[in-house]
Design brief:
20 strands; homodimer; disordered N terminus; about 400 residues; about 25% strand
């Protein structure tokens, strides 16, 4: 009855009665530790998992990996609680396991989807300019973020694209043209990945406001070329998503590298853009790093700044795990493309990977090949594995180097 | 180990290991019933709640209300299951309760937030043109949806706004100007409410493609004037949201009706819009219906189409529950404003409400006042209460009447 009065008194949707009791969670404590709480008086065991807990190192055939850790929460009066060690500034994600069943924190409305899995998120910030601050929405001018539809004649599809335009872009009378940064997602991701878990708009807003990145248009396409858009956002309906992104759909007419020109054409005809290599950057994570690699090879001289983040790089026709030297020696076309691409002298060829990334060896092999051929690149190695935490850092670094 | 190989083989983010086992859920059966499943072998009781189950009628001081029903699921081999009766075409929402704790369906990535509560959603469609079809993304040209930032000098804030531009709007060389439909959310909502649970972009895409709605720009502002944006989307950080929308923030410099001109000014200077009453429509649900009511009163002759959806209408200074006749008789200014507004002869004054809406009596009182004064309006009464299901219908009807 109290709930009903509340509802009536505040013109609140009845559906919200479906929400249960909530506890204060997460609570960021003065020492930087974080307390999580869940009301579950009838549960026998409640655990929490996520990168709020140091990961468990693992080894797979000589590849180092980090596995997410899971810890028990402690119950008191029906409320389960866990307090972390003090946490460094970062965007964290977590979920509860209630007697083994994955449960999102009903007290925390902030959550993101990564492929087929939702997790709650929180941001820990200590001071201005730290990672938590960089990923937060701050009191700075904000760019606009649009979901637009472009035609891909190559793929014979109308497709969804996320476009960030910097603050001031749409000011009436503004005739300024802007450089363009293309940012590509990984396997199972889509055009919502970088704007959400990647915090790409916040990173650019903050870096542009600080004068560290040149105001630019950031384009975040969908890299699953047999689909039109993120799950639920196109006519395939609300299907169960998967890592392959397009399971069950007809095969694509072409890959991302072969169809990338359709995206560039849309952007260059619909926005006020500066063209040419000095004004065009491309980067991507994992599968999107592979797309970046191949797209830059197909378009020598088009991209002045090329960023491979934990990239799933490979030589067409060769296994991703194969050494580049060996595979390249059997592929004259690949060698010619690499030569042409580096002959155009991109201003920046940036390779970044985590030291426990399962693609570490693949990227080491690529670096060996680049070294052997005298192709210049910059290399950044960070702790951790194949995770968003690293990709946000790489975007932050790469964006600051572009267009300069 | 199998999971690790899967991860390594597909360049999949390690974070997704946090997701647990999933069952096939929801499964729409041939007869239109829907089966929900949750793997929870250790749970003692699992329930499901949402509008997939007929609501429970309730009575509060003579006001009819619908309370969401909750039913038990049945366990077999650790999988809890519930099958509904055949469901009519509609967008439904639901959550599980695992031993009393609200649990989102880990097998269903589709979920929306309503104020502080997330629920899973599903759409049931039987045939082309039904409600499920209308709320789905179909093979029709899609409008673009942008989150933009506008300056509100009245509120002394930069604020976030959702703008839908119809398919073709951004075609290079297109000089067409479009009418504008302003769509306002309810208490606790924000600029994400209509695009998400309201399915506003899908409704417009489909109705425009069917030739039933004139291509128009749809503007979905944030009605909480002491905030800049939806929770997490502005510098207040990731705060716990509430029905009041702005709890804990400094009071607003002005209300929505008084600051609405700032939104119109932004739209009219940043988009190719047709102006004047014949090209300008405004509608809103609940609190947003109240905002629509007051904004139209403050701007006689500006809006040719005015839609009050389950509107929290009131006379300034008088209780929302007070009868309009009695309150108006003591308020000459209100009477004068109503007179001026109707003297401008809006093409459509549309009032819609559910028969079990807790604002039913308030709206009945408004109608009585309109009748007594000979002010023309159209009235639509539907089954059900103060719920999105009704508001989507009202938007569908109202949009088809606008600009004609």
């Amino acid at each position: 009855m109290a709930a009903m009065i509340l509802v009536a008194g505040s013109a609140f949707a009845q559906q919200s009665l479906m929400g249960g009791q909530t506890a204060k969670s997460p609570e960021i404590n003065p020492d930087g530790s974080v307390t999580f709480r869940l009301i579950a008086p009838k549960a026998k065991r409640v655990q929490i998992t996520g990168d709020i807990i140091p990961p468990i190192p693992a080894d797979m055939n000589g590849m180092r990996m980090d596995m997410p850790a899971t810890v028990d929460m402690v119950e008191r009066n029906g409320v389960w609680e866990y307090t972390t060690a003090p946490l460094e500034p970062e965007l964290y994600s977590y979920v509860f396991k209630v007697d083994g069943t994955t449960t999102l924190d009903p007290s925390n409305i902030y959550m993101y989807r990564d492929v087929a899995t939702w997790s709650n998120i929180l941001i820990v910030t200590k001071e201005k300019g730290d990672k938590g601050d960089l990923y937060s929405v701050n009191k700075v001018p904000h760019g606009n973020v649009a979901k637009v539809w472009y035609d891909s004649p190559t793929l014979e599809l109308s497709r969804r694209l996320t476009v960030y335009t910097p603050a001031g872009y749409d000011n009436p009378g503004n005739k300024t043209k802007y450089p363009v940064l293309y940012v590509l997602h990984g396997a199972g991701g889509d055009e919502d990945a970088w704007p959400n878990l990647g915090r790409a708009a916040q990173i650019l807003d903050n870096l542009i406001a600080a004068g560290k990145v040149k105001p630019c248009i950031m384009v975040m396409p969908n890299g699953n070329t047999n689909t039109s858009a993120a799950p639920g956002e196109w006519s395939a309906g609300m299907y169960a998503t998967s890592m392959s992104g397009g399971a069950g759909f007809p095969p694509a007419k072409a890959g991302m590298p072969e169809s990338f020109g359709d995206i560039m054409k849309y952007v260059e005809t619909h926005y006020r853009v500066l063209t040419g290599a000095k004004n065009t950057a491309i980067c991507g994570l994992s599968m999107g790093g592979g797309h970046t690699f191949q797209t830059s090879l197909l378009n020598p001289g088009k991209f002045g700044y090329i960023g491979l983040f934990s990239a799933a790089v490979s030589i067409p026709g060769a296994s991703m795990q194969a050494g580049f030297d060996q595979a390249a020696s059997q592929n004259a076309e690949f060698q010619a493309r690499m030569k042409a691409m580096f002959a155009a002298k991109p201003s920046l060829y940036y390779i970044a990977i985590g030291e426990t990334d399962f693609l570490y060896n693949t990227n080491a092999s690529l670096r060996k090949y680049l070294d052997a051929n005298g192709y210049p690149y910059e290399y950044r190695e960070t702790p951790g594995g194949h995770i968003w935490r690293n990709w946000r850092v790489y975007l932050t670094e790469f964006a600051q180097r572009a267009f300069k």
